[in-house]
Amino acid sequence: MCFEQNFESLPKKRSAWLLFLIPIGEALTAYKKLMNQNHPDKVYARTGSESEKAKAEQKTKQFNVAWETIQNKLK
What we know:
chaperone; mainly alpha; J domain-containing protein; elongated; 68% helix; 4 helices
């Protein structure tokens, strides 16, 4: 999975390149908010659907890969 593909999991309203124009603290806050909203257990509690929980698991994996990529680029 290449660098650009990792950002496809982020919300479409923000372009991936904008993440590098905002302070890392704000990026971390946004990451934590997305992870909190898409946590599989919370999604399951809200919807009661196993399929939605599985989708949330995939999203969180993608968010983690994107966040790790950002951290590696900052090193």
